[in-house]
Amino acid sequence: MSAPIVIAGAGIGGLSAALALARAGKRVIILERAAKIEEVGAGLQIAPNAGRILAGLGLESALAAVALEPQAINIRRGRDGSVLARLDLSDSGSRWGAPFRVFHRADLQQALLQAALAHEAIEIRTSARVGDFTERSGRLSLRAHGEGGVEEIDASGLVGADGQRSAVRAHLFPTERDAPYYSGLTAWRALVPAELAPAALRARESNLWMLPGAHVVHYPLRDGSIINVVVIVAEEPRAADGAAILALEGPELARLLAPKGPGADLLSLVQAGASWRHWPLFARPPLSKWSRGAVTLLGDAAHPMLPFLAQGAAQAIEDAAALGTAFLRLGVGVEAAFADYERSRIARASRIVRASRRQGDYFHISGPASVARDFAIRALGGRGMLARNAWLYR
Ligand SMILES: Cc1cc2nc3c(=O)[nH]c(=O)nc-3n(C[C@H](O)[C@H](O)[C@H](O)COP(=O)(O)OP(=O)(O)OC[C@H]3O[C@@H](n4cnc5c(N)ncnc54)[C@H](O)[C@@H]3O)c2cc1C
């Protein structure tokens, strides 16, 4: 029997990749650094391009049970909340082949984890950090650091799905000068109990408020009982590291946002949040290659992106599908399959990295240019705005 493919990281990317590879007949070991597999953070929008893939991996009923399907996205002028465009999502299923869904991250990850645990071709080891690896004479050998010391594992391939600060990436391309850098933007994230939110903001809809140098996204989760709120502001870095180490109370964050001139409902929503988590947003320039020999990268390890198109996890899921397809198409050769996977994915993922950055700039326009932007959005309307996203969702 050939050696298994090892996946570093049991995030949404690593778990999806394991399911796709197992479907393609591969034996998989996932090595996860953390002692417990759990998602930090709050909500996640899963657009139809990823939803279709998850359904194809057999997760439809598990996901439908925990998802909420927002009926629309409202793009709002931040200073008074007026809706510039309402993007109707109610026909996403027939239009894009899957509904537009939002999840509590933990619910999505649990659904993926349970599916992986149930698959006999997938083994998951926690407290196992992938360190370095060597590839000699077609033999790949990697070291996993765990509680019991260092274990040497033979693999037929290694997929680095180990997130934005990927150790596999650092080891694969040691000469790349592409360390993560602070983007100048920070996300503050909180879950607000629905009963504390202004009544006008409790609908089963997603909302985007645009302010000068800031924007806010919120949508309901778990049958509407909580509202996931993300406030993105341009600010000086507060800490050198990417970890979420700070928290602000609602009134403190409201004071920080107030100079941007948010509408009253938005300010009330922010005030209602307790313990806003600090999430500085880091970026890396897109790589020109993701693979070398029998080692490749996937998800945030390959193409970290700013979250303004809500496509980071979706792109990790697209990567997973492409990886599985490469093996199904090409048979057993790991190097050929990884090269095929990279070829099929790198242009689209890199384009979305760049487009996500531009989207943030667009949301944050200030002064007279923001009036022109708002006018253009109104003129385009919900249908026109949705049509602009067709290349993402198709
Ligand atoms: C504010 C915000 C909002 C977002 N909203 C959306 C959204 O609405 N929709 C969307 O699609 N995307 C969104 N994203 C992006 C999305 O969260 C990420 O793109 C996605 O979670 C990446 O998944 P991943 O599996 O590639 O990496 P990660 O989730 O980072 O998982 C990596 C895993 O690898 C493990 N690991 C790390 N190092 C090692 C090692 N050496 N050995 C073994 N294991 C290791 C980690 O513990 C972790 O479990 C958002 C991001 C942010 C910051």
How many strands in all?
A: 18
Number of helices: 12
Give, in spatial order, the strands making up the sheet with the most strands: 5-4-13-14-15-12-17-16
CATH architecture of the largest domain: 3-Layer(bba) Sandwich
The SSE order reads: EHEEHHEEHEHEEEEEHEEEEEHHEEHHHH
Name of the level-1 CATH class of the largest domain? Alpha Beta
Shape: globular
Helical residue percent band: 25-40%
Structural class computed from helices and strand pairing: alpha/beta
CATH topology assignment of the largest domain: FAD/NAD(P)-binding domain
Number of domains: 2
Q: CA-to-CA gap between the ends?
A: 38 Å
Whole-angstrom Rg: 21 Å
**The CATH homology group name of the largest domain:** FAD/NAD(P)-binding domain
Strand proportion, as a percent range, falls in: 25-35%
Overall average pLDDT: 94
Poorly predicted sequence stretches spanning 5 or more consecutive residues = none
List of distinct ligands in this structure: flavin-adenine dinucleotide
> Sheet with the most strands?
8 strands, mixed
